[in-house]
Design brief:
The protein has two helices and eleven strands, in the order αβββββββββββα. The strands form two sheets. The chain has a six-stranded mixed sheet, with helices on one face. Strands 1, 3, 5, 6 and 9 form a five-stranded antiparallel sheet that branches. It is elongated and about 65 Å long.
Amino acid sequence: MRPDLYWLLLALALAGSSRAQEPSPVVLDFQLDPGDQQQREGVVDPETRRLEAQLLVFQAPEIYGWSVAIECDPAQARYVSNSFVPSDFLPGFVPLVDENQEGVVRVGGANFTKTTASGDAELGRLQFELAEGLDTPAILKITRVQFRRLEVLDDLQVEALAALALAGAPPAEPPAEEPVQELLQLSGKEALAHLASHNACPGCDLRQAELPQAELSQADLHQADLTSAVLWKADLSRADLQGALLNDTSLLQADLREANLAGATLKGARLGRAKLQGANLTGAIVDTLKLQGVDLSGVIWVDGRVCGSGSFNECR
């Protein structure tokens, strides 16, 4: 991944919206070959400043129509009018495009015969154009998906990110690092008491701590030793776990969405059915990490890749 796109997507993943509880069933792919090539970062030609993308759907129910809302800062990029071309996924499909709201385009349509189709498919293609003078990446975000079924309308609030950047654009500066809180030398009951009162215990010895269903959202536990701790169903969303030791830790069904696990050690950690969307695992050690039933969509993997939508049990 290009350095500028990596840093921007990293910042967005860490500060992302909490609205999206499940992976988006619709994504943008800038590689136009059949199927999902997971190309979420598009490089725009400096001459045209335009790029075409596929809209792909995964596991669509039986539908006869659909609608997708895509948001973008109008100072960064815009939908190219009249560029939407639907696929043949739905026979007799009549396209509808609404670009009346600034910063949002809604594409979709339906057929009048109510002939349905389902499954994985390309919904159509559309183009986006970078704003003049912009030399940093622009973010596109799918925020709403509607499926028209015969008896019901599915209305889903989602979040699926994609990025556009100019070919040869200079790398963006990485986000400024926040000051690191001084490490504490606490253990046992003292460490647990400090964590309970401050929602923080950086560098603490919390080995074998019993913390099932603990409310630790945004907790500062960087460099903490949580070896063999029990964090079953704990809320660790947006927690700072940089460099933490989580060897053989029970994180079954834990909420780790948007948590920062960069450089953490997770040998033998159990994350079955945990929520990990948007977490940062850059440089983490994941030998024998157990990920049964874990959705890795939007996770920044150990090698810096952003896991695609529908990545279950492994980063794809």
